[in-house]
RNA sequence: CGGGGCAUAGCGCAGUUUGGUAGCGCACAUGGUUUGGGACCAUGGGGUCGGGGGUUCGAAUCCCUCUGCCCCGACCA
């Protein structure tokens, strides 16, 4: 029955990648552009991003951050000051070499991230311990010359938010990095209904130039992991490279301690991959551009039905993000499929029979469940239902993730599970980067994180069999 | 960046093997009948066959080249 509904979409089980691209294109989240690796985010996809921005920005403000904007271009000399950082980003920097027809005296990097230019400014702005902390965020685009791209998950240009903070003490910076990771976790789980594992990255996987990188890792429904957000404790690496000093209370000149943290439009890809099904998108109500759609069933009483749907639409539109699909050129069945494909959480059907009984029909996108409510109860029912859908979507995804975290202490089994089922593999790791590398070479899985939640127990490294108290999650990832 | 595949109307495809001047379904436009899970009839519009170059009397078709997309690796949010 499922397959009969949305003919344009390749079934998930047949070809997950094709399914993913089909959904994005057909639901009009994005489209390919004439520029290699760059996509156009269409209004429906951008509305999702705007909702993400709004909800996150509120959280940033609530934790004391302010927005600012820094230049798109970064002089080459500036970019090169922090050695580890340059090395990390060098292969994917896009360069501006000419202004008009004139060759530039110094090449300009199109920002792949803004640490360097922001640090440059911070060194001017910060003089005293009284200037600290500096808590700035910017919403912008960045460019990374990627070799292989995929809509939302990896594009040459993408939209994101990058927070950059400077603190007086090491402890303050650590606290900030963890605070923002928690902001991300809360946002992603509560508002996007995407369950995540929180933890720390290994040295191999951490951000170029960071002391520590913290991450939230989500699991896509094909069993691959996706880094959904990161928060870095930058230590004093950048402060030293960019000379960001302040005079402390004790009269000593000191380097600041910094953090940076970001999430990107990649999250939209995660929403598609975690929640979507063979009918298309499923968008969590909290961020859905359209939370409910009214589909009138005209029968032979167009005017009667139109009056009623208009009346209800007007009543509801101040309370929920709702649309009235009163187009006459499509049949109700066509509209059902269309809105399901686009992931609208609730459909409200209103026809002559309903009007007679003073009721409406509600249909949930997450479960397909269909039921009637009396007209006076519609608003309260709808609100409750949206909350229920939000929770149900999270619970479903959470269950899937938990079912796909497998504790394994035997390397052959590790290999087999990564091949056959994917998902996260929870195991012991001795901390040696060589062992980590070995896993990657042998299985294709990378160390996603060292989770916070796990009690450290004594075990043996999955590779070298040395005694270890580090628990690590490995997975194939996007 | 390596290996493989694909590119013909908005979308999905046929035509390419064997060169002869482009077709089908859906979508779109107009009119009418319809409307509780992708309605039907009639009429109509839409193509530099991904770009460039070559072979030929003649190229969607053969050759070269470039670009984009998809899959698998390496690199990354």
Could you please describe the fold and organization of this structure?
- This protein has 478 residues and is an alpha+beta fold.
- It folds into 3 domains: 2-70 and 125-275, BirA Bifunctional Protein, domain 2 (2-Layer Sandwich); 290-387, 3-Layer(aba) Sandwich (Rossmann fold); 405-475, C-terminal domain of ProRS (Translation Initiation Factor IF3).
- The chain has an 11-stranded mixed β-sheet with strand order 3-7-8-14-11-10-9-22-25-21-20, with helices on both faces.
- It contains 14 helices and 25 strands.
- The relative contact order is 0.11.
- It has helices at 16-26, 43-62, 76-79, 83-89, 115-125, 170-190, 237-241, 266-275, 302-316, 332-341, 352-357, 378-403, 411-420, 433-443; strands spanning 30-32, 39-41, 66-67, 73-75, 94-99, 102-110, 134-143, 157-167, 196-200, 212-219, 225-235, 245-247, 253-255, 257-264, 292-296, 322-324, 346-350, 359-364, 370-374, 405-407, 424-429, 446-451, 459-460, 467-468, 470-475.
- The protein is globular.
- The chain starts with 15 loop residues before the first helix and ends with a strand.
- α2 packs across α6.
- The structure holds one RNA strand of 77 nucleotides.
